[in-house]
């Protein structure tokens, strides 16, 4: 798994936001990007594809960040996810690995 970019929690804004963009978006859609500004309960975000969005936040909104990590950050019991592609020998080659906080762990 050479040169894999490790990242923490890819999810950006979870289901509790109501979206205000040129076309009304369904509630619960996730957005990935950079926060430009917070004005009261309105978040200005530049998405990873370059679009600008204004998002009105509800009181129970969840915001999760992404930070670089390394192999040393993965410990026994870590909750991880991976994007991978199948190889000819039947193995999987990871394109990226995500280390999720314990609070994001699904039902066990």
Name some characteristics of this structure.
108 residues; mainly beta; four-stranded mixed β-sheet; four-stranded antiparallel β-sheet; 8 strands; 0% helix; 43% strand; disordered N terminus
Gyration radius from CA atoms, angstroms:
16 Å
H/E element string? EEEEEEEE
Proportion of residues in helical segments? under 10%
**Overall pLDDT:** 75
Which percent band covers the strand fraction?
A: 35-45%
Morphology: elongated
Question: In terms of structural class, how would the helical and strand content be classed?
Answer: mainly beta
Q: Work out the number of β strands.
A: 8
What spatial order of strands do you see in the largest sheet?
A: 6-1-8-7
Q: Give the domain tally.
A: 1
Number of helices: 0
In whole angstroms, the N-to-C terminal distance is 27 Å
Given as residue ranges, the uncertain stretches (5+ residues, pLDDT < 50) are 1-23
For the biggest sheet, the summary is: 4 strands, mixed
Description:
The protein is an all-beta fold. The protein has one domain. The chain is 0% helix and 43% strand. A hairpin with a 5-residue loop joins strand 7 (79-86) and strand 8 (92-100). It starts with a strand and ends in an 8-residue tail after the last strand. Mean pLDDT is 75; it is low at 1-23.
Task: Briefly characterize the structure.
This protein is mainly beta and 108 residues long.
How is the secondary structure organized here?
Elements: E1 5-8, E2 17-20, E3 33-39, E4 42-47, E5 52-57, E6 68-69, E7 79-86, E8 92-100
């Amino acid at each position: 798994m050479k040169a894999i970019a490790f990242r923490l929690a890819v999810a950006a804004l979870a289901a509790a936001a109501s979206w205000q963009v040129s076309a009304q978006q369904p509630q619960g859609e996730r957005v990935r990007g950079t926060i430009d500004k917070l004005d009261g309960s309105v978040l200005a975000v530049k998405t990873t594809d370059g679009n600008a969005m204004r998002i009105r936040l509800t009181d129970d909104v969840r915001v999760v960040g992404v930070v670089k990590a390394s192999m040393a950050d993965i410990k026994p019991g870590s909750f991880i996810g991976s994007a991978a592609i199948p190889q000819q020998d039947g193995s999987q080659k990871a394109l990226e690995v995500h280390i999720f906080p314990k609070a994001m762990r699904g039902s066990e």
